[in-house]
Design a protein that fits this description.
By secondary structure, the chain is α+β, with helices and mostly antiparallel strands. It has twelve helices and nine strands. The protein folds into two domains: 36-167, Orthogonal Bundle (Cytochrome Bc1 Complex, Chain D, domain 2), CATH 1.10.760; 184-303, Cytochrome Bc1 Complex, Chain D, domain 2 (Orthogonal Bundle). The strands form four sheets. Strands 1-2-3 form a three-stranded antiparallel beta sheet, with no helix packed on it. Strand 8 and strand 9 form a beta hairpin.
Length: 327
């Protein structure tokens, strides 16, 4: 489990994250907010206990937190790889520049190009299960889905609904364009120096007594070809702001792009939207997604994603991934 964080907005507009774990304190300084950006301090579980919310609602929010940081408890039912929600959304979903999840609670429902319709919060969570965790989501309205949504909403406490997304400080993994085209060859060397200690030389991550400590970055137990982080720019931003763990922004923008180009040229489970032909699938979702991935492109004599491997699951596409229209 990740340590709990207290997010502080200082008088000089410097945002710092301070671990509350007394045995291992540290401080990380984040970029200053830009003029007009909305800075939010997500509440903690301690704040939850001190609140006047109904005890049953508190229990459900705590359940959502538990599922968020240990989604592996749903392994074989909803999760079919070694990822947790907190693998991509660091600091219990509270950390700036690690896709803090409170932003989703105040910007949804909204139109999403990836599936070409308006998504609500539960549907957005369903996408993470389907792609990042290569699985199938809890049923809409189920106890687990409600708990996860309640945890998202708790972290957004006090933020105005439909706060413009581009004004939310620390949302997503923003990154500048590289000075030169990203080089997977340079990324391969950087990976061995900066990443292999935690994620292993073969990218398969680290388990201790069967529990995932550091997730795999490719292969059957990693995110599939439809996951948002399979886009090179998304992974580059995540790396730049968050990796190596405990050393945010220690890698240059260019190094982050090179690493992302290398990692996202490795094979992984099939995109759940696969039509049976990788070139056709890439073309079908090119404008809305795959223009930013290596899926369907040649790498070392092979078309990436040209297989029917679905990883640890025995199905391709969850039933919930279907179009919605009000026409």
């Amino acid at each position: 489990m990740f340590p709990k964080y207290s997010i502080l907005v200082l008088a000089l507009s410097t945002v710092s994250v301070v671990s509350q774990a007394q045995e291992n304190p540290w401080q990380v300084t984040f970029p200053e907010p830009k003029e007009g950006q909305y800075v939010h301090t997500p509440p903690t579980l301690e704040d939850l206990e001190a609140s006047n919310l109904h005890p049953e609602l508190k229990r459900v929010i705590r359940r959502g937190h538990d599922l968020f940081v240990n989604t592996q408890q749903l392994r074989g039912e909803n999760v079919f790889n070694d990822m947790n929600c907190s693998s991509c959304h660091l600091g219990e979903g509270r950390l700036p520049f690690a896709t803090p999840i409170w932003a989703a609670a105040v910007t949804l429902p909204d139109y999403r190009p990836k599936n070409d319709h308006v998504n609500n919060l539960e549907e957005r969570i369903a996408g993470c299960f389907s792609y990042s965790m290569n699985g199938t989501p809890p049923e809409y309205g189920s106890d687990n889905m409600l708990a996860l949504a309640a945890y998202h909403n708790w972290l957004a406490k006090g933020v105005p609904i439909y706060q413009p997304g581009n004004t939310l400080y620390g949302r997503g993994y923003p990154i500048e364009k590289p000075e030169r085209e990203a080089s997977w060859e340079k990324g391969a060397d950087l990976y061995q120096v900066h990443c292999s200690l935690c994620h292993a030389e073969d990218g398969q991550g680290l388990k201790v007594r069967g529990e995932v400590q550091f997730p795999p970055l490719w292969g059957d137990d990693s995110y599939n070809w439809g996951a948002g982080i399979s886009r090179v720019f998304t992974l580059a931003g995540f790396i730049h702001h968050n990796m190596p763990l405990g050393q945010p922004r220690s890698l240059s923008v260019q190094d982050s792009w090179d690493l992302a180009a290398y990692i996202n040229r490795q094979e992984r489970p099939q995109d759940p939207r696969y039509t049976g032909d990788v070139v056709e699938t890439r073309e079908k979702y090119l404008d809305t997604f795959h223009t930013h991935t290596q899926y369907g492109l040649e790498h070392q004599g092979q078309l990436l994603g040209d297989h029917e491997n679905t990883g640890g699951k025995d199905f391709l596409k969850p039933e919930v991934l279907k179009p919605r229209t009000y026409r």
